[in-house]
Amino acid sequence: MSGTSADGLTITLVNNKPFRTLRTKTYKYPAKLQQKILTARDFNASQISELSFELGKQYANSVKKFLKETKKDIKDIFVVGSHGQTITHNPCAKTPNTLQIGEPAFMSAMGLKVVYNFRVKDMVLGGQGAPLVPFFDQYIFGKSEPKILLNIGGIANLSVTGKGVKTFGFDTGPGNSLMDTVMQSAAHKSFDRNGAVAAKGKANEKIIKKILKHKYFSKAPPKSLDKGDFENNFLNKYFGTVNKNNLHDVMATLNILTARTITLAVRRFVLNKTAAKEIVVSGGGALNKTLLENISLLLPELKVHVSDFYGIDPMAKESAAFALMATLALQEKTNHCPEATGAKQKTILGSICL
């Protein structure tokens, strides 16, 4: 899995029966490659094609390292599930479309079977193409007490599943993307470790109220976002230039904003449909202590747990989800939750590269 923050490639080794994650590791991208990914929306076709091959090579090399470190051979691997790097995602365009790159043939040439391109068929069937992880949540937690499964990557998304619940999910709004962008541009750091910078600032409630008027937050699901929906132009509009003088306050505002958008989503679209009493958090945002504290304060009626409470490394969940979906695709079994995306029917997602 390579998310919208483009900080690196997360690889997770998964055992299918019984399902469990065995090991996970994130291989950071070189700074130049990360910058290419973050600006790829403005590339021409030739540049995107070249980047796809560059990423494909990067994926293959990282997999080689991972196999060596885990003392596994290629023959031990049933399949690789590769989400790829999202360059653009436009489910509401005149012709809905999405593009994930990272040429899978490089891993296939190593002797691995690869399943990729998971979003496309969902969109062909009228879905948003995202979020896809609710299928994983249903598979793992669908028979337990109702839960809200919240993943905070660049974009935050949630799933709701459990006994008596018809599984559904959607993107709630910006997750780490705005905070990461500010930290990278104003502090020359990849992210706000533990939310320490945000914890020292004072949130601007006026700005938060203005942002919460954005039409996306009141739109009923199914719905999904592209990182570009909340990016540099958005930051410039509401915050202007960010420097060391206002960094703490901007980060505090963005941290609370993410927590508030999650809270709005839960109150408007979840709690009226289910008796869930728990929210389980994964993704990079699960490691942001300040963000978790803000979510807990805003949703006091829910117990907030990080996913490792249930034995799932918070950084492994998305990559583990695509490993599971790839396994089922190769077995010609459904790996799709259309209730989360708005697709017309269940299907088998993914293209296969042998």
Automatic annotation (TrEMBL):
Protein name: Putative chaperone
Domain of life from the UniProt record: Bacteria
Organism of this sequence: Elusimicrobium minutum (strain Pei191)
Pfam families xref list: AnmK
UniProt-listed InterPro entries: Anhydro_N_Ac-Mur_kinase, ATPase_NBD
Entries under Gene3D superfamilies matching the protein: 3.30.420.40
GO process terms (BP): amino sugar metabolic process; peptidoglycan turnover
GO terms of molecular function: ATP binding; phosphotransferase activity, alcohol group as acceptor
